[in-house]
Design goal:
- The chain has one domain (2-122): 5'-nuclease (Rossmann fold).
- The protein is 59% helix and 11% strand.
- It contains seven helices and five strands; from the N terminus they run E-H-H-E-H-H-E-H-H-E-H-E.
- Helix 1 crosses helix 2 (16-24) and helix 5 (67-84) packs across helix 6 (88-99).
- The longest helix has 18 residues, at 67-84.
- The two termini are 18 Å apart.
């Protein structure tokens, strides 16, 4: 299962439902793009270290960006940016899940639900 960046933000806010979701998952992955977003939103080096430690201690695998992911993200932007407001970061995250044949867990139904062929599990906090 691949987790969208927003799931980690829910955990940071103390959402127990999000924490249990990750705890129950046997396969824990995130896009390299989500990893970048998490580190970018850290307020200081200590928070960045905490993010590294959290992901490592729970056995998360960061899925790399590939040429195929980039190509699929371009297709998603062309198909869904104007009609559904899909942004580049979400396109990369969705493309990573699709290229790795994984279920994407996110609370962002608006942007991800329209993407045909994407395996999506909506998280409701």
């Amino acid at each position: 299962m691949m987790f969208d960046t927003d799931i980690f933000f829910w955990i940071q806010r103390g959402n127990q439902k999000a924490a249990k979701l990750i705890d129950r998952s046997t396969e824990r992955c995130l896009s390299a793009y989500s990893y970048l977003e998490l580190l970018q939103n850290a307020k200081n080096r200590q928070q960045q270290d905490y993010i590294h430690d959290f992901l490592s201690s729970f056995g998360f695998v960061s899925l790399p960006l590939t040429e195929n992911i980039g190509h699929r993200a371009l297709i998603y932007i062309e198909a869904y940016s104007r009609s559904h407001g899909l942004r580049a970061g979400d396109a990369i995250i969705a493309a990573t899940a699709a290229e790795n044949n994984m279920i994407l867990v996110s609370s962002n139904a608006k942007h991800f639900r329209p993407i045909q062929g994407l395996k999506l599990k909506i998280f409701k906090p």
